Amino acid sequence: MQWHEKSAEAVLQEEQSSVNGLTAAEAGRRLGVHGSNVITEKRRKPPFLMLLDQFNDFMIIVLLSAAVISWFIGEAADTITIIVIVIMNAAIGFVQEYRAEKAIAVLRRMTAPSARVRRDGLESEIPAAMLVPGDIILLVAGDIVPADCRLIETAVLLADESALTGESVPVEKNADVLQDHLLSLPDRKNMAYQGTVVTYGRGTAIVIATGMHTQFGKIAAMLAREEEVKTPLQKRLSVFSKKLSVAVLVICAMILAIGIIRGEPFFLMLLTSISLAVAAIPEALPAVITVSLALGARKLMGQNALIRKLLAVETLGAVTYICSDKTGTITLNRMEVSRIYCDGAAQPADAPANPVDQTAKIDNQIQAPFAALFTALALSNDVRQAASGEFSGDSTEVALCEMARRYGFSRAELESRLKRVAEIPFSSERKCMTTLHHYGNSAFVSYTKGAIDILIDRIINVLTSAGLREIDREAIRSVNEAMTSEGLRVVGIAMKSWEEAPQDISPHNLETGLTFLGLVGMMDPPRKEAQEAVAVCKSAGIRPVMITGDHPLTAVAVARKIGIIDGKEAAMTGPELQRLSQAEFKDKVEYVKVYARVSPEQKLSIVRALQDRGQFVAMTGDGVNDAPALKRADIGIAMGITGSDVAKQAAHMVLLDDNFATIVNAVREGRKIYDNIRKFIKYLLTTNSGEILTLFLAPFFEMPIPLLPVQILWINLVTDGLPALALSGEPAEGNVMKRPPRPPRESIFAGGLGVHAIWVGLLMAFTALFVQAWAIRNGNGHWQSMVFTMLCLTQLGHCLAIRSERESLFKIGLLSNKYLLGAVAITFVLQMAVVYVPFLNPIFGTQPLAAGELVFVIAMSAVVFCAVEIEKFAKRRFQHYSSARRAHSPTDA
What is the CATH number of domain 305-332+527-665? Predict the structure, then answer.
């Protein structure tokens, strides 16, 4: 049995307390047993260990090894470049981890600093840290609840629990016993939880949990335990770097051995092998990735997405599921009237069937039904109106007031004619509120609003355009059920008139014998752009899922409106999820599109279950309850406007506009960035394989070593430098959001990347060896300079050709990436300088080429460019042919 199932008397007895509270001595004893009422932090990792951890990566170790080798062979520039890159990446990782460690510290600051407590029968204020189980605490509007407690007395008590449960409106509290063992946190109306806020009324409660035993404490413990998962890019690059490094070292060892067997000088072959290894190790890869992600983060900042962790940019492009909160992300986070039932008809709120006469006499026999309804909406509430005209107060009452004003019923103007003289506030027992107004001579009118299931038995007639008519209770109940099934929050409106001031201002007198005016259905409406964003998700193969603390009917209604649910997809509540084992839930998780009334632990279970099914999960959230799931998700997305500091600290990305559509824009940017990283890797692998194969195959054709060690390092420096970085700025391809996400376990070599690197590398090698053989056969002493120049230029042509996976360079245009065009031009000029500037010739072992030789080299370097363009043309034709066949093939009925 849990606390909400026990009576207040039973809780007092079990905690060995009373309504007068504990004695000071007993409170002191319990403080020694239970400890302070604070959120404890796990022991933080020292900053120097955080920094050292950044170097615990295979790729970083390989790069540092390459830096040492470069230093010993006299390439100080390469050594400095590699070390700068490694330090830059370590610094970024350190800052990210250091920020993440602040999440629980922020959680501690959210708890109440003090509490009103009753001890020894006297009321006093003490530090909240001194509270113990069994203490009696007093709660009033504006208080932060200082500990988890069972309510023993309430007076119209409302609490904002959104930070803990995700519930979008304040929860009405009471002290009643609740019998359901599986009630979710939002439905435990007789409980108040640490860190939530009392928004209205007052209450008395007994503390049942403090510190790490509270719901906040459990969340803090989950945050401390939960480890962030590696991003898709980290996983792929880890495998890629290991395979590449091993392959390069094996091939370089073979080249060294073959050279020695052939009788080449040992030191020359050793330098050549080491140079080739340094050139082939992708030391520019971390820099290119960092630049790509930084540019993407900067662009997303302009689109209202703040990136806290750079790798999150790419991760967005890999997500297969977006688990989104409803309130404020998919919806506007404000209540609006969407349907009304008046004068016997239900209709959209923005299209009343009859003209509204604002000047009609305030009399239930004469006034038009719509006029009476809108008058009641404007007057029967406690909203405040600022000088600017803006309303503030309870979100439901603000929505009703806005509805009345939309049709010209000014609250201020009506109050000047109908003075409020009395009010019966809303209570959980009555479930309604009534205001009494004086108008004209001695006439009075009261307006009552509340739950229709309570009001229906107190109504005696209905106001229609034809006057008062007999009430059809079943018809009204049917309309109410229909509105409720649409996920609307329904409020009934009624009135009563007096010819003179009523002497009895009590609920029994004012709230009986009522005239029914209508029903008003409200909801937090979806954002206009949400439906389009969901459609884009689906076209991109991403499954959107709604997770909310709201009522299931409301959640399903919103999900249908925006297209998350468009068939018979399943919806699940927290209690239903609780009945399933993790194995049973894992089998169902991919079929559920809406979750309602879920707890923090269940949000975490959803993320884990999807990840166990091989999915990449983006999780949005704004409350403290979302923090563990945000940290666990492949990418956690916090709300910038409504989000708590804890959620923002735990997240990878913060939405500055709390808008679901912004997530979809970020996904587009993430996919573009991953495409560009793949293009760079394709470029890197192909050019490096071309160089390796050229040196590896030359001995088999009985030709001398084609390149000197310094020439190998130069090609690596100029071709893997500016052109590679410029590829990171390539615009997104047209089909980026019309294709499914890449499979979660897909290799970075997928999509023909590995095959492309091999065949183009071979083509580069054979072309280079052909140039070498032709020059040697013709007695040309410049053959080494020709091969050197040809390999450099052919890599520039290849860089231009792979700008798009399928489209021709001539279609996308040379000027669509001006940075790359400039990088290619600068690299070409630098290569020409190495060949033609006299003082550089002895440094690089080059000789100036004659005009005919240069033309021949340029022509041969274009071979690879033309071959790749032909490959893309063949792909386009095959895709067109396949699409045509699918279009004309018979489909299943």
Answer: 3.40.50.1000
Question: Where do the domains of the chain lie?
Answer: 3-41+107-225, 47-100, 232-299+671-886, 305-332+527-665, 336-523
Find tokens 């912004």 and name the residue: 662
Query: For residue 707, which phi and psi values (nearest 5 degrees)?
Result: -130, 150
Tens-digit pLDDT profile for residues 466-499: 888 999 999 999 999 999 888 888 999 999 998 8
Could you tell me the end-to-end alpha-carbon distance of the chain, in angstroms, rounded to an integer? 54
Closest C-alpha among 493, 379, 490, 398 to residue 439: 379
CB 729 within 8 A of CB 291: no
Q: What is the CATH number of domain 3-41+107-225?
A: 2.70.150.10
Contact 539, 737 (CB under 8 A): yes
Structure-block tokens of residue 748: 């970075």
Dump pLDDT digits (tens) for 179-211.
Answer: 887 787 878 899 999 888 888 888 999 999 998
- Look at phi and psi of residue 718 and say left if phi exceeds 0, alpha if psi is from -120 to 50, else beta: alpha
In three-state secondary structure terms, 816 is helix
Of residues 532, 522, 475, the one with CA closest to residue 348 = 522
Rounded to an integer, what distance in angstroms lies between the CA atom of residue 107 and that of residue 702?
71
- At a CB cut-off of 8 Å and minimum separation 6, what does 113 contact? 127, 128
Listed residue (545, 532, 562) closest to 325, CA to CA: 545
* Rounded CA separation 567/547 (Å): 18
Main-chain dihedrals φ then ψ at residue 75, nearest 5 degrees: -100, 75
Which residues, 6+ apart, have CB-to-CB distance to 607 below 8 Å? 323, 617, 619, 629, 632, 633
Give the CA distances from residue 33 to residues 37, 115, 131, 677, in Å, rounded to whole numbers and listed in that order.
12, 20, 12, 57
Q: How far apart are CA 202 and CA 83, in angstroms?
A: 63
- Residue 593 DSSP symbol: E
Q: Are 178 and 189 in contact (CB under 8 A)?
A: yes
DSSP SS3 for 130 = helix
CATH topology of domain 336-523: Calcium-transporting ATPase, cytoplasmic domain N (3.40.1110)
Structure confidence by residue, pLDDT tens digits, 727-745: 878 888 878 888 888 776 6
DSSP state, residue 438: E
Is this prediction's pTM over 0.70?
A: no
Q: How confident is the model at residue 103 (pLDDT cuts 50, 70, 90)?
A: very low
State residue 660 phi and psi, 5-degree precision.
-60, -35
Q: Do domains 3-41+107-225 and 305-332+527-665 have the same CATH topology?
A: no
CB atoms inside a 10 Å sphere around CB 645: 17
Where in the sequence numbering do the catalytic residues fall? 325
Alpha helices, H only, 35-114: 47-53, 58-72, 76-100, 103-110
CATH architecture entry for 232-299+671-886: Up-down Bundle (1.20)
> CB–CB of 618/321 below 8 Å?
yes
DSSP reduced 3-state for 199: strand
Contact present, 63 and 82 (Cβ < 8 Å): yes
b/e 6-31 (16+ beta carbons within 10 angstroms → b): bebeebbeebebeeebbeeebbeebb
250 phi and psi, to 5 degrees? -65, -45
Q: Give the C-alpha separation, 319 to 312, whole Å.
A: 11
The Cα–Cα gap between 853 and 867 comes to 22
Residues 200 and 542: their CA atoms lie apart, in Å, by: 42
Residue with tokens 């940290």: 631
CB 799 within 8 A of CB 723: yes
Report the distance separating Cα 202 and Cα 196, nearest Å: 14
**H/E segment holding residue 419:** strand 419-424
Quickly state the pLDDT bin for 56 (edges 50, 70, 90): low
- Helix, coil or strand: residue 883: helix
Asked if 373 and 517 count as a contact pair (C-beta separation under 8 A), the reply is: yes
